[in-house]
Amino acid sequence: MQKYQEALDAMSKTGTEYVRGIPVVKVFQQTVYSFTAFKKTIDAYSDYATEFTTKGCRLPQSLNLTFTEGVFTLFVPVAFFLAPGAMAKGNLASFVVDFAFYAIFSAVISTALAKIMFMTNGLMTAKEALNRIQDIMNVPEVEVSKSQKKPNNNEIVFDHVTFTYEGANHPALSDVSFRVPAGSTIALVGPSGGGKTTAASLIPRFMDVEKGSVQIGGVNVKDMDVHKLMDQVAFVFQSGKLFKMSILENVKASKPDASRQQVLDALEAAQCKDILEKFPEGADTVIGSKGIHLSGGETQRILLARAILKDAPIVVLDEATAFADPENEVLIQKAFENLAKDKTVLMVAHRLSTVTNADCIVVLDKGKVVESGRHEELRMKGGLYAHMWDDYKKGLSWKIENSDTKGKQTKSMEREAS
Amino acid sequence: MKDFMEALTGKADLPKLANYLLLLGIFLVVSLVTHIQQYTNTYGSVYAKVKDVRMNLAESLRKLPLSFFGKRDIADLTETIMGDVNTLEHVWSHVLGYLYGAYISTAVIAIGLLFMSWQLTIAALWAVPVAFMLLFGTRKLVMSRSARTRKAALTVSDSMQEMLECAREIRVTNKEADFLKQFNEKVDTHERVTLSGELFTGIFVNGASVIMRLGMATTILAGTSMILAGTADFMILFMFLMVITRIYAPFDQSLALIAEMFMSQVSAGRIREIYDTPVATGSEDFEPKGHDIVFDKVSFAYEDEGVLKNVSFTAKEGEVTALVGASGSGKSTCARLAARLWDARSGKITLGGVDVQTVDPEVLLRDYSVVFQDVTLFDDTVMENIRLGKRDASDAEVLAAAKAANCDEFIRNLPQGYLTNIGENGSKLSGGERQRISIARALLKNAPVVILDEATASLDVENETRVQGALTRLLAGKTVLVIAHRMRTIENADKVVVMNDGRVVEIGSPADLKTRKTEFAHMLQLQTESANWVI
Amino acid sequence: MKFSEKMKQTYALTDVGIRNMKKAVFWTVIVNLVVMGGQESYISL
Question: Which residue stretches of chain B have pLDDT < 70?
Fold first, then answer.
């Protein structure tokens, strides 16, 4: 039974993948036959189910039915056994009547048994389902400490933090330490996969450290009331999502008792005026309803409005303007500025040009802190940061070219020269 | 029984057991054998059938034009391949054979009975057609209830989906309590609707069952009155009573599932819709003269919104043509039309002089390599994901493509290297890594037309540089259509087509457009501004 | 074959499906009659 459910699940998963990937399937001219993953699970399911029903169920089921429908066959020998006795006693007539009654009545049995069978099936499925629910319920929850301390100030400290993702071979972060004094800005940079987003995620306790501690205002985040922690810090993530409610409600999420005017002010500071003007209902437009769709850049700005409204003393943000188009980019940057004034900011930077004025830059590579300091220092050092900076400058001037045209130019120049 | 009766009336001695035992034995064996046969042909054969249906559906879905997918939800379509086929599977195995078989066998028996006593037959079986009429008559009501239950269930799963997707945001804004409250309300509603639906359906289905069995009462009444009137004997009544109590049994299973049978018609409808949707067709002979792409007064609308209006431009072979513009200006749409992923409403798009809409899409796409902005990867190994670009590519070819897209290094660092599984939609990799795999896949195909839709958007600085370097080499001699937001990436394109609100506003070389007062120059300026921003 | 067409339409059966269904119906009828017959043997024997 369990294997059947698993086969069904596997098929469901690959099926979803297939449907989602149809554009790719079309372009690379694969068919469902070469899209082996899905085909395999379909086959597996069918084969498994057929085997289950024929080998596993057919005989028992058929036997079951044969006997329940043939219950009356038992009567016959018994009747024959009892008949002579009744005859002798002169009760044959009432015996025959009894016999007739039971013969007729036995019909009920097969119907009743059919119903019991349905019920048993239902119970079995329910039991399976309960098992799977149990599996989820058994996952350990985030530990909430009993101490519930309050932070003393707004500084962030990473103290010898080590963290490994479940099932990974190497730690995502090894012995990472740095300090962000209150009111200053620190930028985390480094090659992709280096651990920047992981580090940022440890602050709101999306994951807990293995070794070391993350502290806010001198208090380990594990020792704080989670809700207070969230109140103290404003988070803006990469690829964040909006709730299915009005824009106004979305922004108010971080501060439910804000007035309408405060929300509108925050939206303006986050450069969202054009978004509001796009929709007839302005700030009351409900996200997620028909036809209301915001691009990545627009979503990011609304999320920034939320963070601005919150006005929390600490800001953790994952700067992801990389995917935005030019108009959005400029606006998002202005919104960032408004957000970061006078606050303690920890920023995960993807584009090096944004960090040149940070109070401190921490370079993370393969989970370790390799360099830290201000922009100019690091550039002089000639280490990883300097190398990245050079690459970045080079990248700024890259253009897609066709080496063909270049070749033609060189050839024509050569011809001219000769 | 007859023997018993005779013994009772003194006509004969009590019957002997032995004769009967043999008959009983034969009966049981025959019964078992036929049951097995029945099972084989209902439950046993259903799954092979289902396999074919799913495969056919999946293939049909694949052949449909992309515009079909725009209007539907992925979840909706997956539900059709999975859920709807499951419902039908269930109905095929549990209901159809049994129900129609029961109709026939009951009819046969009824005819036999008619010959014995037409009065009793009517008394016994009048209720069967009445019961069925009731059921089929209320079919629409039952179906609407089921539909309501389904909708409530969907609301619950949507809400669950939202909470899972926005888990981070919910935690961070301390909104857990609010969301849970709202979710609980939806669950309560669902429970209520399901219960009332079940009750409603139950009343009708069980009502039908009860009505059928009223036949028993009428038979007894009719039978005994006939015996009293001397027009029938006990044996006949006994026989009818035996029949009556057993004749409904074959309908039991089907009746219990009748609601499902009705709902399965809706499922069948959805499946048929997919089969009936027109597929893009075209000729299989495709001989383009060169690989220039020409857009000639092309207009396209998506759900009555004019997305492209009278667009004309040429992308020459061996040149890089860039489409730029604000988001929503129609750039991606042009790319999709060029590869015939959608069909234009008016105007003509040609590749090498051949109208793309006259060519069979499967054949046409052989010449295109596309890198989409939304990367779609599959829950398989890195090797196989890249190999998707060219079905029988050798391992060496895959590695070469990976190197060119700057993937080799990070792949070798994965636990099983190229044979590492990357998770659902490549979730085990970072955004940049996924994009590079997508590029490797497209490079492997080595098609004469390459369409890059923001291909380097999610890449960080150093990756972008390296990938761009490789692309430059590999794009030599091909027709390249680039869709870009970043001005700097296309400054050396051979031609720039600037789009705004579905129309072409400017065409020219970058150098040319830069110097004049153009949209292009304006966008370039904005970009430079933001590039110079510092925190 | 108007009936087959209708079945195909309403229940999305394929040709193989129709064939299987016919076999299923056939055997169901046989089973029902065998079982009924056995039970009726009470009377005539």
Answer: 1-20, 66-67, 69-75, 303-306, 327-328, 431, 455-466, 485-489, 491-492, 526-535
Output the six-digit token pair for B85: 């086929």
Q: What is the ipTM of this complex?
A: 0.83
Interface contact flag, C42 A70, Cβ < 8 Å:
no
Report how many helices (DSSP H) and strands (DSSP E) chain C contains, helices first. Answer: 2, 0
Is B496 in contact with B504 (CB distance < 8 Å)? no
Q: What is the pLDDT of residues A257-294, one digit of tens each?
A: 888 898 988 888 888 887 787 777 778 888 776 556 67
Domains contained in chain B, CATH given:
2-276 (1.20.1560.10), 293-531 (3.40.50.300)
The DSSP result for A362-392, as a single string, is EEEETTEEEEEE-HHHHHHHTSHHHHHHHHH
Q: What subunits make at least 3 CB pairs under 8 angstroms with A? A: B, C
pLDDT one-digit tens code per residue, B209-218? 888 888 888 8
Q: Does B250 touch chain C (CB under 8 A)?
A: yes
Chains B, C: CB contacts within 8 A come to 125
Q: What pLDDT score was predicted for residue B328?
A: 64
Tokens of A416: 């001219």
Contact B105 C29 (CB under 8 A): yes
Q: How far is A69 from chain C (nearest CA, A)?
A: 7
Residues 6+ apart with CB under 8 A from B429: B377, B422, B423, B437
Residue whose token pair is 């890198």: B371
Residue A409, pLDDT score: 40
List of chain B residues whose C-beta atoms are within 8 Å of the C-beta of residue A186: none
- Counting as low any pLDDT under 50, the low residues of chain A are 322-323, 398-418
In this structure, which topology does domain A156-396 adopt according to CATH? Answer: Rossmann fold (3.40.50)
User: How confident is the model over B37-47, as pLDDT tens digits?
Assistant: 888 877 777 88
Give the start-to-end residue ranges of the domains of chain A: 2-137, 156-396
Q: Which residues contact B81 (CB under 8 A, 6 or more apart)?
A: A15, A19, B54, B57, B58, B61
- DSSP at A343: S
pLDDT of residue B192: 94
DSSP A76-109: HHHHHHHHHHHHHHT-HHHHHHHHHHHHHHTHHH
Q: Under DSSP, is residue B14 helix (H, G, I), strand (E, B) or coil?
A: coil
| Token digits of residue B153 | 């269930």
Task: Indicate the SS3 state at residue B423.
Answer: coil
**What is the torsional sign of CA A258, A264, A268, A272?**
positive
How far away is chain B from the Cα of A43, in angstroms, using its nearest Cα? Answer: 7
